[in-house]
Recover the amino acids of this structure.
DNA sequence: AATACAACTGACTAGACAGTCAGCCTGACT
DNA sequence: AGTCAGGCTGACTGTCTAGTCAGTTGTATT
């Protein structure tokens, strides 16, 4: 693993767990086992490092979902929707730093003045919404989903699962305990 | 308005919009029109100032909800639930700083090592969940709500509306455009 | 008028921070 | 053997930060 990749991995962890401002370049350097000047050799500024991290997160998310759906088949749209929700929750568990990062306010603040950041966030959230919308549209065709607006419903479903993941990551409520309830409610929502 | 209250008001705005670390005591002082030493006369540390802000937010939220429900009546539980969701969204609009603050990660991180912070957050979220749960329980008694777990369903509903508010505050999607859809979906969820 | 006390402040400090820069090391090519 | 370049570093800087403290003001009580 190159030193650049090591820096990126450590930075992902720290930005996710401590936030942008709370993470110091000296700490990233120490944990990566490099001199702090090395970070500035690979990344122009701290903001640049953050954008590289976010870009990796985006690529990771897109890859995970395309991989999952490329080797799975579903008997109908409703089933596909349920599997999508389940996979989102699964991913939030196995890739917690990604979701911690996305649940911080900094990236959205940065997106206001940085177009690249905005395109990254849009790619991520479009990926999420598209997956639910796709399942709903298929469900309407095969009759397993009722007459609702697929896009808007997909947004509400994303809000729900994303909210649950956030609550879990904030140690407020446990996502696992809500799993069955959530599936039932989502199913009834789109019937 | 006393200088102490002025400091609290400015601090609420800045902690909500910039976060804990990004907000400097000098800026709070300048905007409040006091010397920075004055802040430390009223509040022992920066963390202490933050906790005072959060305490105010908690009191504000509890007050707003108790006031709203004390002068409203509903013909059944389902209607009460719908009104609760609507009022949550309304409050998130009129008291945006409160919700920006609650959507930051810092308070939850602080809660891990600070019991007072934890009790404040618990009071806030219990208030939210109780309101939805209360409506669901009433609805089950009058038959307007189906056979579901009121507590868990309340948690899912809170996740949904809280998620939508967060998306709106992050400039990702507009809560207003989703209002009708949301109400329909929540209604169907609990039938 | 003297006392007492709370509210407030200007001037300060020690530490942390992002970012810079001149130069070192190592391996590849000539 | 000499040259070159990419990767890397130690030592540094100017700026910003939370927090301190000795001392001033205003006001109420005696």
């Amino acid at each position: 693993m190159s030193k650049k990749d090591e820096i990126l991995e450590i930075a992902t962890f720290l930005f996710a767990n401590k936030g942008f401002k709370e993470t110091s370049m000296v700490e990233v350097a120490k944990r990566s086992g490099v001199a702090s000047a090395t970070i500035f050799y690979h990344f122009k500024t701290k903001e640049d490092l953050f954008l590289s991290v976010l870009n990796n997160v985006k690529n990771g998310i897109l890859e995970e979902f395309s991989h999952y759906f490329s080797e799975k088949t579903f008997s109908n749209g409703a089933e596909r929707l349920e599997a999508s929700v389940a996979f989102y929750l699964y991913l939030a568990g196995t890739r917690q730093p990604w979701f911690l990062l996305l649940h911080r306010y900094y990236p959205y603040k940065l997106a206001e003045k940085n177009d690249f950041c905005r395109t990254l966030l849009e790619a991520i959230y479009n990926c999420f919404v598209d997956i639910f919308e796709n399942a709903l549209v298929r469900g309407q065709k095969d009759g397993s989903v009722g007459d609702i607006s697929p896009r808007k419903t997909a947004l509400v479903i994303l809000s729900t699962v994303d909210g649950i993941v956030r609550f879990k990551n904030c140690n407020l409520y446990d996502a696992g305990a809500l799993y069955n309830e959530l599936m039932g409610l989502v199913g009834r929502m789109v019937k």
Summary: Chain A is about 75% helix and 0% strand. The radius of gyration of chain A is 19 Å.
